[in-house]
Amino acid sequence: MIKIFLMVNKQGQTRLSKYYEHVEINKRTLLETEVIKSCLSRSNEQCSFIEFKDFKLIYRQYAALFIVVGVNDTENEMAIYEFIHNFVEVLDEYFSRVSELD
Amino acid sequence: MVVPSSKLQDLIEEIRGAKTQAQEREVIQKECAHIRASFRDGDPLHRHRQLAKLLYVHMLGYPAHFGQMECLKLIASPRFTDKRVGYLGAMLLLDERQDAHLLITNSIKNDLSQGIQAVQGLALCTLSTVGSAEMCRDLATEVEKLLLQPGPYVRKKAVLTAVHIIRKVPELSNIFLPPCAQLLHERHHGVLLGTITLITELCERSPAALKHFRKVVPQLVQILWTLVTTGYSTEHSISGVSDPFLQVQILRLLRILGRNHEESSETMNDLLAQVATNTDTSRNAGNAVLFETVLTIMDIRSVAGLRVLAVNILGRFLLNSDKNIRYVALTSLLRVVQSDHSAVQRHRPTVVECLREPDASLSRRALELSLALVNSSNVRAMTQELQSFLESCPPDLRADCASGILLAAERFAPTKRWHIDTILRVLTMAGTHVRDDAVANLTQLIGGAQELHAYSVRRLYSALAEDISQQPLVQVAAWCIGEYGDLLLEGSCEETEPLQVEEEEVLALLEKVLQSHMSLPATRGYALTALMKLSTRLRGDNNRIRQVVSVYGSCLDVELQQRAVEYNALFQKYDYMRAAILEKMPLVERGGTQDEEAKESKEAQHSEAAVIPTEPQTSKLLDLLDLLDGTSGAAQPPPPLEPSSEGTSVHLLDLPCVSPAPASIPNLKVFEREGLQLTLSFVRPPGTPALLLIMVTAINTSEADVTHFVCQAAVPKSFQLQLQAPSGDTVPAQGGLPMTQLLRILNPKKAPLRLKLRLTYNHFGQSVQEIFEVNNLPVETWQ
């Protein structure tokens, strides 16, 4: 089950966050900074799946924007990876030439 | 005068135009004030616009709670534009924790029963996002009705809402069971995907539903079959695979349905084989489907051939250059290694390759998997690899790697020498990261391997001479040098290069350890005791040692001071006892806690179920008498001398002082050969009914002395045997002073006593070894 859907840019600003389980507002920023830190510290060599506390993070980078999805254990990571790409393609299709600021 | 409200776009442009955070805040505050005023005035025409702006501001992180009532008003309004923004606002602002959210229940109910699809869609979306338990209960029946509506747009949303309702209120699942079967006939993939998710949720939450849905397995198989075998379909294809998301969901549902259920698993076998072989693996989508297939095959009761296929697929994944794929492959192999060990063994070389990955999570997984794959046939190669990994691995993995190597070495060591070598190497490389009991294990191992004493003490000496910073290594080395210092100085050993070591060098090294600031207090203790022991082993005079010991008599560390003072006393007052006290230590028995720890770490490493339980090290090493039951209740020489406890002074003087109480069991002559006779006399002390004392007396009536006489005994497992120290190891000739040895046997179960004796001695210039069982034991010995 997807727990978190985040879009964060390289400077660490959250562009979009959607929590599918309730998390306190103040804990959210903390969580987001930690997530961003772990994603930004990965190099290109490393794989896109990170184990983070009690769930798994799957991230994908598009130019300066990171799309991060946090899932629980039962999900197929590679399907989620594909899903992120599908999402971006849909946005692109619908809004044409979508960029971070849009 | 009412200022005409700006449109959302204008607001956005204004906010974007703000150069600093403060400016932005200003703009937003001004706008919020406008919005609040407009809400107060109740302007119905532009309300939606105001709310839209408010929602945008909310997304940026500013407070927007005053907009909640407006959402309600907008939802209730008949216009679609209003409803749209209103529902959106409801989803963003009105979550469960707000009190106002229940108020929209009625509006949703009305909207759901209206015929307009778009409106129904909006209502369903909102319900599925923010629906609380009470709302769900109220509206469940409405949603169910919508499940069977003709249009796929509404059905899709209705199914997703149903999923949410079930998550919130599991008791309502019964309502949604009947429509599911019909929904499976859908052609629209969106509805199908939703239905599969719904069924998955239902099955996960209730076993009754699970049983109910086993009936639909054939149908699911059919759907997946069509998906996989039909050709390219533009609507659903993602990089060549037709709707991978649907495929993955169906596979997951099949996994849940087929788990522990033979019949369903059988129906799935062909399909899974088909999917596994036909999916295109060049792109990620195909690999995702393949991965899910593998997980499913592993979980259900599949045929062996299929499982092997699955493991091979995972092996192929490992060879793939994409890191993500390797990661999932390693994770799944780890799960599989317990059940299909041999299949995974085939891929061992690839796994070992993965150890060299720069990515930390990959190398960690590879390490765990490699440790799980070590078995007796590949242990040498594997430890070689693991050791080279240990040298280069990141520090957080070092501890795991080191303990893993040590454990594997313990379980599968082909020879003792190899075992000692391996432990030595690990200690030199990663000494600070090993577990605390590694030192104890190693000392015991070395102590038990008598033939390797010379070898190990040399190796340790050279290692110590190079580097005294690795504490476990230093401790073991100090202990060994203390125990076997004489062997070190002898100068000859076939297994290593000849090493000429002078006494002075050894003493200097130990002093260096004592003085080094890198040494822990425990290490200093070891070194001090080693120095003491050397005082009896070395041939030179002991001035240097005495000096050191007396210096430490005033050391600040209490433990060291105590030891030094006691050793000093040994030198001065009790010099005659020094040799006896400091003689070679007998083998330390491994306690019960060691076995438990070994068991725990075995479990933690997902090891195979068929692992040999770690018998006490001592029984393997002493390798005495294969006993009566085939298990060894091997005898132990007198209670061990711990190096780390408080002084060595008094314990060994605890010689047997139990005087045999009067008892009337007749003596038994058990052995005679060439003038050497062995007699057993029995005593049952009245105070302890389970205890039996046997005095073994050896008399020599021949003309030649019997030298190096050693008597060992063994009893069945339910007994406890203790051999006290013999009075000597020479039985002088011609009826001289007999040699005696006391055996204490505890027999709590009053089982029949069986006793086997083993004698080794030199007589008439020949070495003799005799093993025999004592027959005719009088009944009174055990009843």
Automatic annotation (TrEMBL), chain A:
It is found in: Endomembrane system. GO terms for biological process: intracellular protein transport. It comes from the Eukaryota. Signal peptide: none annotated. Belongs to the adaptor complexes small subunit family. Component of the adaptor protein complex 4 (AP-4). Adaptor protein complexes are vesicle coat components involved both in vesicle formation and cargo selection. They control the vesicular transport of proteins in different trafficking pathways. AP-4 forms a non clathrin-associated coat on vesicles departing the trans-Golgi network (TGN) and may be involved in the targeting of proteins from the trans-Golgi network (TGN) to the endosomal-lysosomal system. This is AP complex subunit sigma. GO terms for cellular component: cytoplasm; endomembrane system. It is a peripheral membrane protein. Pfam families: Clat_adaptor_s. The keyword RNA-binding does not apply. Adaptor protein complex 4 (AP-4) is a heterotetramer composed of two large adaptins (epsilon-type subunit AP4E1 and beta-type subunit AP4B1), a medium adaptin (mu-type subunit AP4M1) and a small adaptin (sigma-type AP4S1). InterPro entries: AP_complex_ssu (IPR016635), AP_mu_sigma_su (IPR022775), Longin-like_dom_sf (IPR011012). Keywords: Membrane, Protein transport, Transport.
